[in-house]
Amino acid sequence: MILTGWEALFFWVFAIAAIFAGLLTVMARNAVHSALFLISSLVSVAALFVLARAEFIAGVQILVYVGGVMVLFLFVIMLVNVGAEERGRDEIFNKQRQVGASLLFCLILVAGLLYAVNKGSVGLQRQNPPKVEESGAALQGPEDATLAKSATGTSEATRDTERVAGSLYRYASLPFEIASVLLLVAIIGSVMLARTLKQEASADDVDPEVLQEELQEHPEVGKVEVAS
Amino acid sequence: MLTHLVTISLLLFQEAPRSNLSQMVYSARNPDISKFLVVGAILFTIGVAGVLTRRNIIVIFMSIELILNAANLNFIAFSRYLQGTGNVNAVSGQIFAVFVIVVAAAEAAIGLGIVIALYRNKETIWVDEIDLLKW
């Protein structure tokens, strides 16, 4: 795979946008700003997915990550926000020595990863010599010529999503079902974790007056105090 | 001066054989799979740095999402690469990416539920103040 022309330009634009938005996610003082920068990083990576001809994954990324997970994050931030933005720089990060050690570790990590990518891409190129002219119609099979053009006439519809779906149900149907069970467990688990004492009592059919009396007699039940 | 510019621009557009610098420029003008992997590695490291250095537990969760997203980028890049080589089942990388997204969504739901329960009990989201299991 080799990107050429405008694809190459857009690759660099979105790659740099993703990296900078990721950096700002980690460095932003306010957690809401962090979430917004993470959203822009995710959208840029979705654009990179489109450049790699994975339109379905790009759509899933936008819908699930940006539309679902990040909205959940924003809700939780607004539930628990404690005004971290007024504090100084050393408050949002750990202690100085810890930050230094972890940055050193990250430097070693990225150096090793980039070295491995460099070494490995040489081997990949030797195994499959890259072809520049594979973009466009050459990649698509002859059956794709019958597919309709898009409304703007600049691109053709592909069978990519169809191929993903076929492969997903043919080769990965058991993991697919396991994933649905995982999501069910996650839903029930988060509801169980996040409910309050009052909701718990109503689920256990405790009379609210009894609960009120219990709370007056033993106030430590209402707010679980942790011995430190 | 003008001749230098002409030589440099000729170097940019000529095919092999290339010198070291013009080879770098050529590979930057035509990014291949290794550039995708480099972007993924950098995003992964940024996420690791966020997990290790931040105190806010929600930002730590967001850094974990960044790490998972970098892994997805690698999956997609290799899927695209295998499509170019004519491999029969090249879209399995995209299927892996779907499962990574599913697990990330489940992890975020559970993790944020834990954060809310923790905030209700301890009224803090700084990880260095959540030291129940430390003795």
Describe this structure in words.
- By secondary structure, chain A is mostly helical.
- Chain A has three domains: 1-93, NADH-ubiquinone/plastoquinone oxidoreductase chain 6, subunit NuoJ (Four Helix Bundle (Hemerythrin (Met), subunit A)), CATH 1.20.120.1200; 95-134; 161-221, no CATH class.
- In chain A, 68% of the residues lie in helices and 0% in strands.
- Chain A has nine helices and no strands.
- Chain A has helices spanning 6-27, 31-51, 55-80, 89-92, 96-127, 160-171, 173-194, 197-203, 208-217.
- In chain A, helix 1 runs antiparallel to helix 2 (31-51) and helix 2 runs antiparallel to helix 3 (55-80).
- Chain A is extended, with a radius of gyration of 25 Å.
- Chain A starts with 5 loop residues before the first helix and ends in an 11-residue tail after the last helix.
- In chain B, helix 3 (33-53) runs antiparallel to helix 4 (57-84) and helix 4 (57-84) runs antiparallel to helix 5.
- Chain B contains five helices and no strands.
- Chain B has a single domain, classed as Helix Hairpins.
- At the A-B interface, helix 1, helix 2, helix 3, helix 5 and helix 6 of A face helix 3, helix 4 and helix 5 of B.
